[in-house]
């Protein structure tokens, strides 16, 4: 019987966040997913010598998502919403499994702040980008895209989008993630309730010139592509940077791998009396 590649793998301790929450993981498993972390554990660095890695800027839920992905190829976010027994407890997968104190989001909760959901996926994406975990990088982007696509907008819930934008633009963040957030914001501004959306975004647009510029670019792209490409079922998003508005040639030259999407958003309900929650499969 062939031995598991992890049988001889030593457990490696990860101390996460300001509280230094401990995760014990198979070093070989971690190295198979992240060359960067692999070198930290097995190379001539102090982390390898002392037998642990400190990740003060990461959250426990982000690392738990990474470890679950390493074991299963997928992850589910966990958001602390309630401490009542009706919420299931999440599990952190590692060399020594422990019970987490953050309950899983309940899809029946009508008072959910969905910014927690969106930002959780953004944090996973940023972690994967920082440590070169390609599969997790793509998965986190897909999950955030799906969650935003199926998010039911309302005036009451606009704050969730503003919080996501603020998180992505007020700290070092991969450009592709910023572009997705800006393109989604442009779709909101391009809806039939521009005044409502503009009011919610006003401070961000005033404070963050980079966000304002990118969102303006994407709005121009939507305007250009509305007749040319929406009839084909999707609108391509061109990356900001060119001096002129996108031409048909630009729109047609999108290469494989460049971010593109068509946001099909519902109109924002000013009354927000009949809000529905994002389907569970969208935020998992």
TrEMBL record:
<dbReference type="InterPro" id="IPR011333">
    <property type="entry name" value="SKP1/BTB/POZ_sf"/>
</dbReference>
<dbReference type="InterPro" id="IPR000210">
    <property type="entry name" value="BTB/POZ_dom"/>
</dbReference>
<dbReference type="Pfam" id="PF00651">
    <property type="entry name" value="BTB"/>
</dbReference>
<feature type="domain" description="BTB">
    <location>
        <begin position="10"/>
        <end position="79"/>
    </location>
</feature>
<protein>
    <recommendedName>
        <fullName>BTB domain-containing protein</fullName>
    </recommendedName>
</protein>
